[in-house]
Design brief:
There is one protein chain. This protein is mainly beta. Helix content is 6%, strand content 32%. It is built from three helices and twelve strands. The strands form three sheets. The chain has a six-stranded mixed beta sheet. The radius of gyration is 27 Å and the shape is elongated. The N and C termini lie far apart (78 Å).
């Protein structure tokens, strides 16, 4: 069975799952740049998020372990479903495999599992550079903000920049060592810069209260603007 297959049943084990090759991982549209989101495109996985409500062949994702190069990277402090302690960029992944049931003995812990293999260098020096930018300043204001009395309310602002740089190839030492078909390296830098500005509406004192004048009405539940005025 090749890595291009979509449904796998190994001849030496009863494991049932799916594999996405490096090319498919990079070709599939992925807004979040998080490889784990591709899990939702696979058969047997039901749910719109990676939380506990999503299931692997009927089993909650709280019982699913995430493995990277044979090591568990599951953010397991809380049962929040499938996750990783670090972001998994598509350019970092060589193979992405989802095991529905059962998990191989040597990679146990959990009824289901997400297995990720990172990339390696090749005999050629190759690299990539990607920059994605999103800015809500280019979006139109909402209808509810535009109908505010006294003028339109400015919307919340979010400016997000996500960039990555990767480079790999053979390890060579001129005159001493030729790493062709022997030793390789691969490095990737991924960073996200997010700037936000949110509009906050707070309660303020009246003109009289600012002068230290507070009024109380007998028979009423006195309080600020948010307090319900219920009579006795």
């Amino acid at each position: 069975v090749t890595a291009e297959s979509t449904a796998l049943i190994s001849e030496s084990a009863a494991t049932i799952g799916q594999v996405l090759s490096q090319k498919k991982v990079q070709d599939l549209p992925l807004v979040s740049n998080n490889v784990l989101d591709l899990m939702q495109t696979m058969a047997g996985v039901r749910g719109a998020t990676l939380g506990e409500s999503t299931t692997f062949a009927g089993v909650s994702t709280s019982m699913v372990n995430t493995v990277r190069d044979g090591l568990s990277v599951q953010d397991g402090r809380y049962a929040n479903g499938v996750g990783s302690v670090t972001s998994l960029h598509p350019d970092l992944v060589s193979e992405f495999r989802v095991i529905l049931t059962p998990v191989d003995v040597e990679l146990g812990r959990g009824n289901g599992q997400v297995q990720i293999t990172t990339r390696s260098g090749t005999n050629q020096f190759r690299g990539t550079a990607v920059w994605n930018a999103r800015n809500t300043a280019f979006n139109a204001n909402t209808w509810s903000n535009n109908r505010t009395l006294g003028g339109a309310t400015p919307p919340n602002w979010d400016n997000n920049h996500d960039y990555s740089i990767s480079y790999g190839g053979p390890v060579k030492i001129p005159g001493l060592y030729d790493g062709k078909n022997k030793t390789f390296f691969f490095a990737l830098w991924d960073q996200t810069l997010d700037f936000q500005r949110n509009l906050i509406t707070a309660s303020v004192m009246t003109d009289a209260a600012r002068q230290g004048i507070f009024r109380y009405f007998e028979g009423w539940n006195n309080g600020n603007y948010n307090t319900a005025t219920v009579t006795t």
